[in-house]
Fold these 3 entries.
Entry 1:
Amino acid sequence: MKNLKKNMRVLKELLYLRFHGLAVFRLDFFAPFLIDGSLFAIQLLAFGVVYANVDTIGSWHQGEMILYIGTFSLLNAVNMTLYFFGVNGIPGKVKSGELDLYLTKPVSPLFRLTFENISPGSIPLVCMSICIIVYGISMLKMRLTVIQIGKYLFWIVLMAVLYYEVEVIIRSVSLYIVSMARMEQIEEAGLDLCMKLPGIAFYGVYKFIFYLVLPYGIMATFPVQSIIGEMGWRSALYGIFVVLLFTVMTGIVWKQGLKHYNSASS
């Protein structure tokens, strides 16, 4: 509880400093929105091309696919807003030795790295994603209950945590090796594929990879399955297991990486 209160105070100060900096350099506010908005538009066009002549994927029709696209876009938008720019800077800080400064502070270095570059310029993308989700629900002609909405939000939060953990693990590799290029290419390829294809399309070795090794395949699939009533208790338990597994792995990889880290001043 004491650590939680301290972290909340630190988060408050980080937010103040971040918004103060954005007020001085206003381009920093609008640039992420313009860049992410362009990427968002390109992704929608790509989805339109892919699914223009496809009636179904597995048991899913166009309505489910639109809901899936909106869900993955929402997770990506939350990622870009809250922690992407902070976590993405880890390899650079390791390489330059700037990580030393974070290790000397009386607060978790990962916590500060995560939230020091919150991007309010990405918030409009959250709104756009919600609009796509609402459109998908309207196409399915669903009458949502409070329980359905609650389940969906629960899985959105859980998958946002998983998204974060995967990003941290990948970038924590920079504490062990010099070049991150290959790892980032693998991440980009996996995300690009899973943003176009839902998890229900994967079988065999591909399901093993995208349901466990790089679990991008479940990130938007499970929330959609929860709201349309396709999620069984085994899938629910598996999703929770994967999140807990990656939580443990994130802690181990990060802590062991810090022990392996050679300070720039050493």
Entry 2:
Amino acid sequence: MPSHITYAYIRQNPDIREYIRRADMALAAIGYTEHSFAHVEKAANTAAMILEMLEFPPRQIELTKIAGFLHDIGNVINRNDHAQSGAVMAFRILDRLEMPVDEICSIISAIGNHDEGTAQPVDAISAALIIADKTYVRRSRVRNTDFMTFDIHDRVNYAVEYAKLYFSEDRKSIVLDLKIDTKISSALKYFEIFMERMLLSKRAALFFDRKFKMIINGSNIL
């Protein structure tokens, strides 16, 4: 039986929005970059774009957006193992909404496999979410307003002036294109800090039989 649960409903659900808001507050308290609505909506839309470009069915694309919106709610419990706790939380939410079990499985599997410490691209939704989440960087995610006290993650994120994820013209590669202010952080330092995420994105792209490419300031890095 088709599910009545849509991305629009999940996005507007007040309980879910409170989980996301409180999860971001918890990360703010320990000095992490922004993980609020801007982040989860961008992750949802980017993951959906990947599956749209690869011509996946509309319902699978919608499930991907739901997974993207919910993927970081586990941070309300703790940053450690937040992917797994978030998957359990999402199960409870979606089960109470009477979403079909097969759809719940797809969503919680993607959420439980998005953190680079334990992530694996086990299916299309999880692979798309990995790429969307791990390639998302922008200057405005940095909360610290004192440049002199930036840690390396603040510095690297703040250095990014432009970031775009897109498919190559032949659709054989997924490309992360970045412009970095090298006065703030070198391109090498960016790759050093985010190497694990980029290699995970490469594995996720291979799930779709695609290459993952990274361009920084016009030069191919990966």
Entry 3:
Amino acid sequence: MAVLFYIDVMIDAVYNSNIINKEKIMAEIIEINDLTAKELIPYAACNEVQLKRYFEPELGIFIAESPKVIRLALDAGYEPLSLLIERKYITGQACDIVERCGDIPVYTADSDVLTQLTGFKLTQGVLCAMRRRELPSVEEVCRSASRIAVLEDVMNQTNVGAIIRSAAALNIDAVLLTPACSDPLYRRSVRVSMGTVFKLAWTYFDCGTPDYVEKLKNMGFTTAAMALHSNTVDIDNPVLGEAEKIAVILGTEGEGLKDCTIESCDYTVKIPMANGVDSLNVAAASAVAFWQLRKK
């Protein structure tokens, strides 16, 4: 059984310095002394797919990592279920998070114990289990969008997170993903995105939408496939920048876009290379494309 320590005992020393408003603290601080406790399963024994199905048939959970990312998720209205915090951060850089999360459990220990529990060293000492919520439809996401990114079967979590971060930074309105893409709410994707998954609109195409390019065209988007292919136009071609609505379509690392996707698009687009380099990583290529085609 875990040993319970209440917030009044653990952080009483900081109340007098006005760092924390005692009246707003309702959390129960739980000192970890049993790494197999069922309450810790989301942080220890679950892979990403298991977390996603945690409350099946209801929506599952995801893990937000680092104070900055957790704050952005809270700002976006995601519901926190529990916190895992290195002891020193309860009265340090995560004290406002503890306050904002209300009466949820806060599990704590020293860094080496948390590393043993999770299998990795916590980034800035804080994790938060949060409830997923229903995703909007493609139509909802695209209703007022003029610049969108489309990811086709991009399975690398780091690339998904990096692309979303670039899209948010470079004024892309939304990101759409095919069903085979890695989930933007997987821990690594969330962390790499620096929490921009909570700021930028995104959703998945339905599994029953094989010809998503045609769907985009029907919504008024000019479709631009980023690919090493014949009959390409350069990314700085004026015809692309002048498009009222454009969808930049990016494929998975290595294989790239499917031939049928390229053939269906209005344009096949390349980024001119130098020094014998044939291409950029998909995340780097996305940033170049987003900058060139951003809303003016």
